[in-house]
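Supplementary notes for students who missed Thursday's class. We covered one full example, reproduced here. Read the sequence, then the structure, then the short commentary at the end.
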Amino acid sequence: MTIILAWYRDLIELTMSSNLMTMVQPGAFSNLIQIGVLNLRLNNLTTIKSDSNSITNIQSGAILNLPKMRELNLQSNQITDIRPGTFSNLPNLPRLRLSSNHITNIWPGAFSSLPQLRWLDMCSNQLTYIQADAFSNLPQLSYLNLASNQIATIPPDTFLDLPQLMKLVLLNNPWQCDCRMVAFSLSSAEMLTNTIK
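Structure (token representation):
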């Protein structure tokens, strides 16, 4: 079934959760210039080229020209990968839900086009490692949830470029508390000290 969303230019909230969508075609939401909330949770998205549920991969440019978007909910899909450019047309997005997917990798700069992002939930995925630049250019990020993944170690400077970070949730990960984590521990202590001042 195809739904033509171009006819609904004044739509401010769209919930398409609990469908069997597997792909979103490029430009699927491009005419929804007033949209504030897009909820695609509980689908089987594997690819977001533009619109679909059951997403596994969100291709660059899939979500076009949505400057008023306040929340993007992609939780409980099949997303495996977050690449740079995925969210490039959401410059004012403050809230992003990517929890309960199958994300194993966050590419460096994947969120760099989201300078207004304040809240990012990536819990209950399959992340094993966080690349140092995965959270670059997120000056407003104050909440980051990476709980219930498979993270064993974290590079020392991973969170240092997040000046507003107030809550970092890392519980329920299989930590390898060895020499590789010493640098992270020391940089985290320095980050907390600088935040408290």
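Commentary. Helices lie at 182-196. The first helix runs from residue 182 to 196. If anything here is unclear, bring it to office hours.
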